[in-house]
């Protein structure tokens, strides 16, 4: 099975967790895109979705799924479905490879349950092989890079087509490589405390409640 087959298998498996008549949260990335395409098949069973990025909002809308602004939602979303760059068996994750970490963390925090959908290549014992994304205020990027280097990794400004990558929120991203994150909740808190950091792509203090993991011998549920 290809990696895309595994992503499709977890996208399909996630559909059974979608409650009828509700608004759900939807993440960003290639696995989330498979999920959005599957969601389109049952779109009449939901009221709509809150999107974690412009790209996701566009894809939802292209399928005729109503996209809600989080500011118009007054109740917790029952479920948030999203992928991950790395995940441990305990549900701690690195996210933000697609640059949508801030809105992803916001919508996850607005949801009762985070269901991670990932292929088996994302499962790790220790987070950090995937460079840790940190969204920062642009004028503070070099100051924050020096502060992040204290944790032992190498922060690099994310570039796209020769220019700094700019998030949907108008910020930039530092990708910190070379970390071995043995206590992700602690590192998340420390990085959150650096002035000028908008969001760190560690989802550990509040991680995934459930992970649907696409493996060559079927979808496994890690809870
Ligand atoms: C985007 C994310 C994605 O969930 C993460 O990058 C995984 O993406 P993919 O499903 O394409 O592997 O955090 O900001």
UniProtKB/TrEMBL annotation:
<feature type="binding site">
    <location>
        <begin position="82"/>
        <end position="85"/>
    </location>
    <ligand>
        <name>substrate</name>
    </ligand>
</feature>
<feature type="binding site">
    <location>
        <begin position="95"/>
        <end position="98"/>
    </location>
    <ligand>
        <name>substrate</name>
    </ligand>
</feature>
<dbReference type="InterPro" id="IPR020672">
    <property type="entry name" value="Ribose5P_isomerase_typA_subgr"/>
</dbReference>
<feature type="active site" description="Proton acceptor">
    <location>
        <position position="104"/>
    </location>
</feature>
<comment type="similarity">
    <text>Belongs to the ribose 5-phosphate isomerase family.</text>
</comment>
<comment type="function">
    <text>Catalyzes the reversible conversion of ribose-5-phosphate to ribulose 5-phosphate.</text>
</comment>
<dbReference type="GO" id="GO:0009052">
    <property type="term" value="P:pentose-phosphate shunt, non-oxidative branch"/>
</dbReference>
<comment type="pathway">
    <text>Carbohydrate degradation; pentose phosphate pathway; D-ribose 5-phosphate from D-ribulose 5-phosphate (non-oxidative stage): step 1/1.</text>
</comment>
<dbReference type="Pfam" id="PF06026">
    <property type="entry name" value="Rib_5-P_isom_A"/>
</dbReference>
<dbReference type="GO" id="GO:0006014">
    <property type="term" value="P:D-ribose metabolic process"/>
</dbReference>
<dbReference type="InterPro" id="IPR037171">
    <property type="entry name" value="NagB/RpiA_transferase-like"/>
</dbReference>
<feature type="binding site">
    <location>
        <position position="122"/>
    </location>
    <ligand>
        <name>substrate</name>
    </ligand>
</feature>
<keyword id="KW-0413">Isomerase</keyword>
<comment type="subunit">
    <text>Homodimer.</text>
</comment>
<feature type="binding site">
    <location>
        <begin position="28"/>
        <end position="31"/>
    </location>
    <ligand>
        <name>substrate</name>
    </ligand>
</feature>
<dbReference type="InterPro" id="IPR004788">
    <property type="entry name" value="Ribose5P_isomerase_type_A"/>
</dbReference>
<protein>
    <recommendedName>
        <fullName>Ribose-5-phosphate isomerase A</fullName>
        <ecNumber>5.3.1.6</ecNumber>
    </recommendedName>
</protein>
<dbReference type="GO" id="GO:0004751">
    <property type="term" value="F:ribose-5-phosphate isomerase activity"/>
</dbReference>
<dbReference type="GO" id="GO:0005829">
    <property type="term" value="C:cytosol"/>
</dbReference>
